[in-house]
Write a structure and sequence with these properties.
564 residues, alpha+beta, 3 domains, rod-shaped
Length: 564
């Protein structure tokens, strides 16, 4: 081996050691840099030189690569954990928000107000002629109706908040995708001649980790160094082609609906985890069901109370009464969807009573009802012509409501409605409206509490109607699958409580999983200052040894030259 070859060995030592020292220094400089992956130096001996007699001697060291310590499978699991934790936090946040809005176990919750409302009818039953108690019943009804309206408004506010968060999340996702696409292009250009652009890859990984907070993404590495990103099976980024995410807003059956789609072609995206997945889940499985439950509960509260109330009598009758529900088409059957009525009408009948104010004489007239055949026009004709109720004229109001008008000196009252037509048309009802948005106490009752029905069968001092309404809170209803109003509401509240407890546990478990995976990622990719200090000392000694080796070879060369 020549002295020149020996000098090359020393030179390779200095070059490799210097580069390794630089890598160790860079690692220590970025020990606290978010997203930085530790670099490791891969040194390998240079292929030996044949010196005869079957022997080879080394020719120094070669710096093969500077490797970025990165475990793609572990990083994918870490991103899943990030998405799961953010999803759990969103679930917890909105479930607690709904529980707070419901405010159960306080004096202003629906359960308490429902009890106070029905209990007021029990008090009325004790003294049905007391107008002060009648006013109390009406006030309790207004309080309950107002709380239901407020609850519906608060639920809608939560849904609007989710929609705004979805919009902000989609904007953030598209911004991240644009940045990742740009870095993809830069990496492809930089690595075209070989090697890896580690700093750019770190930046890209950090952005993908950030993206995983919002939506579950799968990374597909490409040979040129770029990556493709998929949500489920739908690509949202192909190298530098950002296909993007879109939040589409629509009105379906009168309710606002949102969906996640690929911006490039409108394909549906099924986000399962991350903030967007959790927001969609909360919108569809928490907020929408509680809105539906609230409207079902309110609708049945209205109808069940009205069905009993409409057959009872107050301490005075009506000189005229107008239904509170408008009918879109008065020529179709009352049970047709074209009428717009919120409640169905059974086959049956009800009685109209006409009382002469002067004599107290009362006449009774039966009106037969078939909701699947009878139209509003037919009903008006039956009252006016077929039955011909004396001293009462049936007509249509300005918005196609049924209007009954008594002649001067006469009063109208009702009883024995087996069809539910009185409640469905809104005659002699306690409530108006059909859901939590529109529920109100009938304005006629607020103006004249004497119209509040406590009696039945026109028996003076009767309290049967008041008692029947008081019993409704614990009476099973067919439209509530046999549950009472109280049971239905309590079941809805309890279901939400179970979901909230599950969300709380999920936050704890996903936090532990993420912490464990984070520790594993740090073990693979994190920088240890102590380890790098040892490496730095090792390479420093190697550099010093290489320099000393070169000095020795130089001295040998000088000796040789002096001999020559």
């Amino acid at each position: 081996m020549s002295l020149t070859g020996a000098l090359q060995i020393g030179r390779s030592t200095l070059t490799a050691s210097q580069a390794a020292l630089q890598v160790a220094g860079n690692n220590m400089a970025n020990a606290a840099t978010p997203g930085f992956h530790r670099r490791s130096v891969n040194l390998a001996p240079v292929r030996g030189e044949y010196i005869g007699n079957g022997q080879f001697v080394g020719r120094g060291v070669n710096l093969q690569s500077v490797k970025r310590e990165y475990d793609s499978a572990l990083q994918a699991r870490m991103r899943n954990a990030i998405g799961d934790q953010n999803s759990a936090l969103i679930d917890q946040r909105f479930l607690i928000a709904i529980e707070t809005i419901q405010n159960e176990l306080t004096d202003n919750d629906i359960s308490s107000l429902l009890s106070e409302f029905f209990n007021s009818f029990s008090e009325l039953a004790n003294d049905p002629d007391d107008n002060a108690i009648r006013s109390l019943v009406i006030q309790q009804g207004q309080t309950l109706a107002g709380r239901l309206q407020d609850l519906k408004g608060d639920y809608n506010d939560v849904r609007d908040q989710i929609d705004r968060a979805l919009g902000a999340g989609v904007s953030k996702i598209n911004d991240l995708l644009n940045q990742i696409g740009q870095i993809n292009g830069n990496i492809a250009v930089s690595e075209a001649s070989g090697g890896q652009e580690n700093a750019l890859r770190d930046q890209r990984d950090l952005l993908v980790d950030e993206l995983a907070k919002f939506i579950d993404v799968t990374q597909i590495d490409q040979p040129n160094g770029s990556i493709n990103l998929l949500v489920g099976s739908m690509p949202v980024l192909i190298a530098t082609d950002v296909r993007g995410v879109e939040l589409r807003r629509e009105i379906i059956d009168g309710e606002p609906s949102v969906s996640l789609r690929i911006a490039a072609d409108g394909s549906f995206i099924n986000a399962k985890t991350g903030e967007l997945g959790a927001l969609m889940n909360q919108r569809d499985t928490t907020v929408t069901p509680v809105l539906d439950d609230l409207d079902v509960f309110t609708s049945q509260l209205i109808f069940q109370v009205n069905r009993v109330h409409s057959q009872g009598q107050g301490s005075t009758g009506f000189s005229s009464v107008k239904g509170s529900y408008s009918i879109l088409d008065s020529t179709v059957s009352l049970n047709s969807n074209l009428t717009g009525l919120p409640y169905k009408i059974d086959n049956g009948s009800f009685f109209i009573h006409v009382t002469d104010d002067a004599t107290g004489q009362r006449t009774t007239h039966r009106i037969d009802i078939d909701g699947n055949d009878l139209s509003l026009d037919d009903l008006i004709n039956e009252i006016n012509v077929v039955v011909g109720v004396p001293s009462v004229t049936a007509s249509k109001g300005a918005a196609n409501q049924l209007v009954l008008t008594a002649a001067a000196g006469a009063k109208i009252s009702f009883s024995d409605d087996t069809s539910g037509a009185l409640a469905a048309l809104g005659l002699n009802t306690f409530f108006t409206g059909s859901d939590a948005t529109s529920i109100e106490v009938n304005q006629r009752l607020r103006d004249n509490p004497r119209l509040l029905a406590a009696a039945s069968q026109h028996i003076a001092g009767s309290n049967d109607t008041a008692l029947a309404i008081a019993d409704l809170q614990d009476l099973g209803a067919q439209d509530l699958n046999g549950s009472s109003l109280r049971e239905f509401w309590n079941n809805s509240v309890n279901d939400l409580a179970v979901k909230t407890n599950a969300a709380n546990r999920a936050v704890e478990s996903t936090g532990l999983i993420k912490a464990s995976l984070s520790a594993q990622v740090q073990a693979v990719s994190g920088v240890s200052i102590d380890e790098e200090a040892i490496n730095m000392l090792t390479f420093q000694r190697q550099f010093q040894a290489g320099a000393r080796f070169i000095q020795t070879i130089d001295e040998m060369l000088q000796t040789l030259l002096s001999i020559v």
